[in-house]
Amino acid sequence: MSVRRPVPPPIEAVEGDITTQQVDAIVNAANSSLLGGGGVDGAIHRAAGPALLAECQELRRTRYLDGLPAGHAIATGAGDLPSRWVVHAVGPNRRAGQTNPTTMASCFESSLREVVRVGGRSVAFPAVGAGVYGWDVREVAEIAVRTVRSSALLTHLDLVRFVLRGEKALRAFERALATPPDPA
Ligand code: AR6
Asked: Which SMART domains does this UniProt record tie to the protein (predicted)?
């Protein structure tokens, strides 16, 4: 069990490439197949090399024969990446009619649970769902920041970083982080 932190960790937003982050775990915006794709998923698999795909194939064979459902997350090793783990989170596909914000929130909460389960203390998230899956990045930012801020798992972490591609995504997360949290 990891050590609890007395105060909540920093939650920050930066523009950049998630594959170069020096954190314990990076989150992948995966799909149910876990076998790679475009966007950030493609970038992570390219940078991680074949060891990551092999682990994902093994998970499909042994645990997720029908794929990983939307809203769920699972950690693997990170191949050649600087991080130790990749947490594969499946966002709801808005273009396929998956519009439930609770499923999106579950992606972020399940990812934090996986990071803590494997013993990670720092994590970088992309804007899950805000690319191929068609979510407005402002909605993703609001859900992500609200979910992470209110997670009981935060006390086990030292850093949560959102790593965004482009000015619009960065602004959306900066704005969400600048909004005071809901009163408990
Ligand atoms: N670092 C950080 N963010 C990135 C990077 C990167 N290297 N590359 C892209 N983004 P997407 P989704 C941003 O489409 O919407 C894949 O094919 C991107 O600008 O990667 O959840 C999967 O296999 C956007 O803001 O993920 C699935 O089939 C955000 O990452 C499907 O796409 C998410 O865009 C998942 O779609």
From this structure: A1pp
Query: Cα(6) to centroid of ligand 1, in Å?
Result: 34
Atom of ligand 1 nearest to the CA of 37: 23
Does 29 contact ligand 1 (Cβ within 6 A)?
yes
CB atoms within 10 A of CB 21: 20
pLDDT tens sequence across 101-147: 999 999 999 999 999 999 999 999 999 999 999 999 999 999 999 99
The answer to the question of residue 64 being in a domain is: yes
Q: Which domain holds residue 29?
A: 11-178
48 pLDDT higher than 70? yes
What CATH code is carried by the domain that includes residue 49?
Answer: 3.40.220.10
Please report the ipTM that was assigned to this predicted complex. 0.99
Q: Which atom of ligand 1 is nearest the CA belonging to 17? A: 1
- pTM for this predicted structure: 0.97
In-domain check, residue 184: no
29 burial level (CB within 10 Å; 0-12, 13-18, 19+) = buried
How many angstroms separate the CA atoms of 33 and 178, rounded? 36
Q: Could you give the number of structural domains in the chain?
A: 1
Is residue 1 assigned to a domain? no
Tell me which of 94, 123, 165 to substitute to probe ligand 1's pocket, judged by most ligand atoms within 8 Å of the beta carbon. 165
Evaluate: CB of 133 within 6 angstroms of ligand 1: yes
Catalytic residue among 41, 66, 80, 182: 41
